[in-house]
Amino acid sequence: MKRKKTRILCGFLSILSCCLFLSAAAKAQKLNGQIDSLIKIVITDQQGPGGVFMVAHKGKVLYQKAFGKANIELGVGLTPENIFQLGSMTKQFTAVSVLLLEQEGKLKVSDPISKYLPDYPAGNKITIHHLLTHTSGIKDFTKMKSLASIAQKEMTPKMMVDFFKDEPVDFAPGERFEYNNSGYVLLGYLIELVSGERYADFIQHHIFDQLAMRHSYYANDRQIIKNRAYGYQKKENTYVNKTVINFSVPFASGSLMSTLADLLKWQNALSQHKLLNVAETDKAFSSYKLNNGTPFNYGYGWHIKEMEGLPVNTHGGSIFGFKSMGVYVPGEDIYVVGLTNCDCSSPTLLTENITCLVIRQLIKGQ
């Protein structure tokens, strides 16, 4: 009798488990279909450049697909394994590199930059914190008319700093928040001065190698990189190959390349404190205030926002031929990334919409 009851119970549990599995599979299929629909509204031409998208929850991939072509001339389709230029998502890596040096006691974010660059104009008033938070007031080199004169030249970090350092400042340090690429070029130079390593080598040794990010690089148009996606721009009604720039110009503000899988390794490492301790991590993801006490929503290398009533950390990027966007929901461990290989197609709003959809489905059960 007991055996019969046991068999009945086991059968019931087996049926229940099967039902739960089918229910979860149906929900996953529904979510995937909804994400597909959102993407196809934006990426409509499967014969043109497109993008790759990923959703991860608790460190595991829930959704990952590619749309469009990696190379239009050869008719090669994009895959989730393709390597994309990240543009300003590079700033995350630069900010964490600075915090790694602080963690090692080699600098402090409160240091004035004159400690490392004694001849920098008003460098005693500009701190590393100001550079990290885009509150330094220094001239953004991307807004200078003379940028075209150096865009294709090989520039050392010092040459880049010399290019903008004598320009009139836009405001006093800490007075305003204004997104600034020059600040992150300066940070890359400081990383080199403090560590004794080239910026590209520091990122490789202290981040990429540490996290087994084997498909991430400091960008180089001459190096043969397997699975590299080609970049495009749109001119009138046709696609053209991207404008060529020398990556020594954007430098630490926008010159890294990566894949969806490597970016997930990166986010998981940050969440699990594999690189930074809790105190340094908190600095990256805190909001700060201007001199007058007004708060602004930027940490060190990330925008601090809310979506669906939850705090999120975000950052996008744009460089000739490519755009990128990453959104992380820390309280729920949700990570959403979109990478596109045409700067005519921004994944920013799309990635944010996917994040909101995932929050509603997974967390709120709507």
UniProtKB/TrEMBL annotation:
The source organism is Pedobacter terrae
| Keyword Manganese annotated | no
Which positions carry the signal peptide feature in this UniProt record?
A: 1-28
The name this protein goes by in its record = CubicO group peptidase, beta-lactamase class C family
Locate the Beta-lactamase-related domain: which residues? 38-343
Q: Which UniProt keywords apply?
A: Signal
* One Pfam family linked to the record: Beta-lactamase
